[in-house]
Amino acid sequence: MTERRIVITGIGVVSPLGNNKDDFWKNLVAGKSGIRRIQSMDTEKYDCKIAGEVVDFDPTPFFNNHKEARRADRFFQLAMAASKMAFKDSGLNQDSLDPWRVGVMVGSGIGGLSTIETQYEILLNKGPNRVSPFLIPMMITNIASGMIATDFGFMGPNMCITTACATSNNNIGEAWRIMKFGDADIMIAGGAEASIRPCGLSGFGNMKALSMRNDEPERASRPWDTGRDGFVMGEGSGVVVLEEYEHAKKRGATIYAELAGYGVTADAYHLTAPHPEGLGASKCMDMALRHAKMNPTDVSYVNAHATSTPVGDLCELRAIKRTFGGYAQKGLLVSGTKSMTGHLLGAAGGIELAASIFAIRDQIIPPTINVENLDPEVDVDIVPNVARQAKVTAALSNSFGFGGHNSSVLVKKVD
């Protein structure tokens, strides 16, 4: 790989805490929860009745017309919205760009679950001739990347990586790698998810993976607290614009941060459980540091995967201590923002990278809320309950997925 530097010049967010990056960040810093009783479906027959839903979202302004928006699955609607917002935020002018030098990598962990459910019901009740001809293009996970590129007219590298909850980080990290090789100057990258649906809710629920704190939705997601009982599903999209540094500098772009390192490993351990000692996750963070040519003590903040599961939270904690050594207990700040957003699955890494970037910009660490009784094994500073002013020069964001997928991205303040 070349020594090309890759920076972030645009950010787009649609989340349970707000349908733009500014509302998202304001509510995150305020310690506000976006988790509530599910409104989009009848949950009477379901054990879990809570989630982090995107509310008051109108996809129409992000498409060419109402019909086009209606023919897009919700995950794609969210992806298009975040991508359009990120590109606008970057200040780029698509007419002045070489379309062969601009690529798109926006993935999804599950894809068009809503479309699959509704069309399968039509198949069963009305027969195969009534199934929509748009079923396949609406449900496939790569449709977001393909159609975002089509909308903009960008003909550079285009793909969709699906690695469960590591999806966003892998798409962003591999886009970074493509740019490092010199195959693109600009990449739109991230993830989107919209799986708060009957299949999603029952599937995760029957795995006993979800919190059942239905009477207290805002207090249900509680990373590292002794009362944690599972994660809370969320939906949304987080997308960034990656740009080669000299390209951004030449046009006078506002640069949020430099994407300095990326790590990717596999646990090769279990279908859903992480390695108990966090070996794969630790090696993943080590790789991101190595790519960035940084020492562990150069990192100010870790936005942890921290889903609020009894096993996963502690496995990640062990991984962090393995990578950061004594510094983990003496200076490193860590927080779990899923305590406020819920777990956006394939979109999680996108919005959590945005949070990490804003932490550098504003010199403030978003909190881990709902920490009432800290797990005795937790001996790092998880910034409990209240945001904190701090010197933040570099931040690392972790995302781990079913199947043992580990991904870490490292951003730093631009020199």
UniProtKB/TrEMBL annotation:
Gene3D superfamilies associated with the record: 3.40.47.10
Record flagged with keyword Transit peptide: no
Residue span(s) of domain Ketosynthase family 3 (KS3): 3-413
Signal peptide: none
Pathway: Lipid metabolism; fatty acid biosynthesis
Alphabetized GO MF terms: 3-oxoacyl-[acyl-carrier-protein] synthase activity
InterPro entries in alphabetical order: 3-oxoacyl-ACP_synth-2, Beta-ketoacyl_synthase, Ketoacyl_synth_AS, Ketoacyl_synth_C, Ketoacyl_synth_N, PKS_Beta-ketoAc_synthase_dom, Thiolase-like
UniProt keyword terms in alphabetical order: Acyltransferase, Fatty acid biosynthesis, Fatty acid metabolism, Lipid biosynthesis, Lipid metabolism, Transferase
Catalytic-site annotation from UniProt: C165
Keyword Nucleus recorded: no
The protein's enzyme class: transferase
EC number(s) given by UniProt: 2.3.1.179
Catalysed reactions, semicolon-separated: (9Z)-hexadecenoyl-[ACP] + malonyl-[ACP] + H(+) = 3-oxo-(11Z)-octadecenoyl-[ACP] + holo-[ACP] + CO2; a fatty acyl-[ACP] + malonyl-[ACP] + H(+) = a 3-oxoacyl-[ACP] + holo-[ACP] + CO2
Family: Belongs to the thiolase-like superfamily. Beta-ketoacyl-ACP synthases family.
Role: Involved in the type II fatty acid elongation cycle. Catalyzes the elongation of a wide range of acyl-ACP by the addition of two carbons from malonyl-ACP to an acyl acceptor. Can efficiently catalyze the conversion of palmitoleoyl-ACP (cis-hexadec-9-enoyl-ACP) to cis-vaccenoyl-ACP (cis-octadec-11-enoyl-ACP), an essential step in the thermal regulation of fatty acid composition.
NCBIfam families: fabF (TIGR03150), PRK06333.1 (NF004970), PRK07314.1 (NF005589)
Stated name of the protein: 3-oxoacyl-[acyl-carrier-protein] synthase 2
